[in-house]
């Protein structure tokens, strides 16, 4: 009896002995990994703290550099913004006047027509209510002056500002050019203080039917003041990291803009009753006075009333009387370290849990060995029950899949059209209605050709169907037409659904509107081929046009092609003496003069700082009179002085000309023109040199010749 009991007890003892050994090994492994992981994470935390401090300083340096650049860029663009806005507003007024003139000048008398134009502009305001339109005659008589209507009809020719500048004469001079348009700088009484004059810039153009000077302008300081809220808002919205913010303060410690505490803007914290805040504010002010740098101090976190430790980079903006502050709360560092600590704990817990799971699985396997036979019969019945359960699950999953497919079809952003084998529409989703304007019941049963436009010919659709028949799919760009007649581009993908025997069951078309993408591509193409300052073609556009024209000439032997390399003489002196704004004005004026001297078939380009290139095509009739005449005209126009405000700037240029010969590539032609330009500068500047074995020279024309040209 005892023997039998021992015999039956032995397998269980063996099972429990093996299980205990495995358990001890698992526990030993768990303890080892726990201690090893803990030590490793302690070293990592120390290294992480040092690296985070260094990365915080680098991040503050980068963010500060970006913020300073943006602030200075905004102020730098104030004048340009004022000029652009003034020109845009003036041209809108001229468009309105031209439209009214074209519509009513045959119906009204001249006096009635003029009065209609004047009253149409009188009440228009812009620039936050400061801006208005004025109209003057070329003899200096005021036609429209909304801020002083009593002056209308009187001559303002002798009105001067506090510098002695004749305001009306400056406006007349601004339109005394080929474009009959330009800018005028003068001073006038500021709206907020009618005893003090401040700088003002106006843009004027001539209204041709009556030779009226039409224009508008605004005060420069207003545009700079208008920029300050943008700068404040920009400072408030800068975020980096989890707790990285910017602040802007005046030199006396008054908070101007803050991403942390915008509700406290306008407060001078050097007088704060809280000594910690007062000491922190004084630290910022003192650091800025000493040239800036890194400082630790206490400050408020968003939504907290208790100050927290913060590392900030402080930079003084002396030209504005501001202090720019970029700071990161050290709570973020603590949070990162805490996150690492928690990660370490999670890893340790994971190791323990895995060991426990392994122990549990081994124990369950041991128990399973003893219960295998008793459960064998039950498993037979369970198998049938599981099969039934699987079938039910598959049916539910199939139903859910069908519902999901229907939801995806209806909620898809792309338009989806399903048609039958005869290409009659069976089903469309709501996106088709949004894109095409057709309702679903207007398309069901019809052929998709109702959406076609006239942009593609029959050959295009023939190739489409050939691809569908041979490959079962077609993808490409196509132009279709909405219900309202608007033609738009779309990206279309058509696939063929066939049954097991290869017969067509459905055509499935998926498409989306790419109008915005096409517009963006056009804008990018224009930006890539245009010089942003002058509006002329850039070097890339020049090389494309030159290579295309040379290929055409090589093939058809006409027309002749000539390159004019134009380089302004002593342009650096203009930038040094008058500033880069004046230099940019000179470059823009040179570009306008080049454009006025050329025909529509010619191309003017800016390829460098003060370097211009003219690509000219001419009829090869055995002489070079056309090119010499163009050279004299260019030289005459480019030697005329440029007026900027009250200053007349003398300019000069040197021009090198090379004519293309058969077999010569674009590189050789440009090299020849460049050599001719070098010769022109070497011979004294202010002249044109034609490249060749016997180079010809065109010097500066006499006043009589210039008048003739």
CATH topology of the largest domain, which one?
Answer: Alpha-Beta Plaits
Strand content: 15-25%
- Major beta sheet, strand line-up: 17-18-16-21-22-23
The biggest sheet, with number of strands, parallel, antiparallel or mixed sense and barrel status, is: 6 strands, mixed
Q: How many distinct domains?
A: 4
* Tally of strands: 23
Report the CATH architecture of the largest domain: 2-Layer Sandwich
- Structural class based on helices, strands and sheet pairing: alpha+beta
Individual helix count? 17
Under CATH, the homologous superfamily of the largest domain reads: Reverse transcriptase/Diguanylate cyclase domain
Fraction of residues in helix: 40-55%
CA-based gyration radius: 40 Å
Distance between the first and last residues' Cα: 136 Å
Q: What is the CATH first-level class name of the largest domain?
A: Alpha Beta
Mean pLDDT: 82
Low-confidence stretches: 702-709
Description:
The protein is an alpha+beta fold and 709 residues long. It folds into four domains: 79-224, Beta-Lactamase (2-Layer Sandwich), CATH 3.30.450.20; 238-329, 2-Layer Sandwich (Beta-Lactamase), CATH 3.30.450.20; 415-516, PAS domain (Beta-Lactamase), CATH 3.30.450.20; 530-708, Alpha-Beta Plaits. The protein has 17 helices and 23 strands. The protein has helices at residues 2-76, 78-104, 110-122, 167-174, 220-237, 275-289, 331-411, 430-436, 440-443, 458-471, 515-529, 539-556, 571-578, 580-597, 625-638, 666-682, 703-708; strands at residues 134-137, 142-144, 181-190, 193-207, 212-219, 244-250, 255-258, 293-300, 307-317, 322-329, 415-419, 425-428, 473-481, 487-498, 504-513, 560-568, 603-606, 611-618, 642-644, 647-649, 653-659, 688-690, 696-698. The strands form five sheets. A six-stranded mixed β-sheet has the order 17-18-16-21-22-23, sandwiched between helices. The chain has a five-stranded antiparallel β-sheet with strand order 2-1-5-4-3, sandwiched between helices. The protein has a five-stranded antiparallel β-sheet with strand order 7-6-10-9-8, sandwiched between helices. Helix 14 runs antiparallel to helix 15 (625-638). The chain is extended and about 115 Å long. Mean pLDDT is 82; it is low at 702-709.
